[in-house]
Amino acid sequence: MSTHAKIRLYVEHPLAAGQTVPLSRDQAHYLFGVMRQAVGGAVLLFNEEHGEWRAEIVEAGKRGGMLACVEQTAPLRLPPDLWLLFAPIKKARTDFIVEKAAELGAGRICPVQTEFTNAERIRQDRLQAHAVEAAEQCGGTYVPPVAALQRLERVLSDWPGDRRLIFADEALVGARAALEAAPRSDKWAILIGPEGGFSPAERDRLHDLPFVTPISLGPRILRADTAAVAALTLFQATRGDWE
Ligand code: SAH
Question: Is the overall model pTM greater than 0.90, yes or no?
Answer without folding.
Answer: yes
